[in-house]
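How it folds:
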Amino acid sequence: MLDNLSLILFIGGAGYAAWRWRQSANLMSLIMVGVIPLTTVLQTNAIYRGPLGTVPFIAYLTAIPLALAWSNAHRARPLLRPLVYGGVAAMIAVIGYVNVHAYFSDWAKNPVFPWVYAQQISAASEYIESLPEKPYIYFYSGRWSFNYETRQYLAPNARGEDRSKEFGKRQDIEVDRSRDVMFVLLPGYLDNIDAIRGRYPGGQLYEERDGRELLFIAYRLKPRQAMVP
């Protein structure tokens, strides 16, 4: 989680906080850095999201050596004071650059990035929300439930149900044709589109890709009474 410079500062700050543990901020930060990562052990979902709660406390401990150097710079010889102030500012600038570059360049190109940021369900939810009419959704996904937070946030007005074996009470492709419905297929169930189109021909097919990767498939069926013979 930390670049090399931040790691060195964090170790120094944690050591100082342990020495001055009676100060509430120091004790709280040490406890939180130790306790919050346990969320990755005690749950099976959001293992990346949980440890992010440690960031404010890690930042506090990392800042301690810089704060001590800055606040005590006035005690140094006059010729050394600008070096101390400049050194602190330079380290903050380096840490800022390294982290911004790592996030927007290295991390963005990492194949884990779409997985962590739930690209497939995000794209599907945005598509569902963009529809002027809100069809009833039959949701198939091997990773996410229809009630997953990302869908609830990006498509709060959507109505639907899970049909995956992982989350649904039913796993068939039977639908209520008396209303506007749409199958939404995510990885794990993309191949189901052939069976669905074979059972319900004439629907509206939509696919969204990121490069060569197929993110999701949507297949919409209008109500029977609205269909032209």
Q: What stands out?
A: The CA atoms of residues 177 and 223 lie 5 Å apart. The mean pLDDT is 90. The longest helix spans residues 81-107.
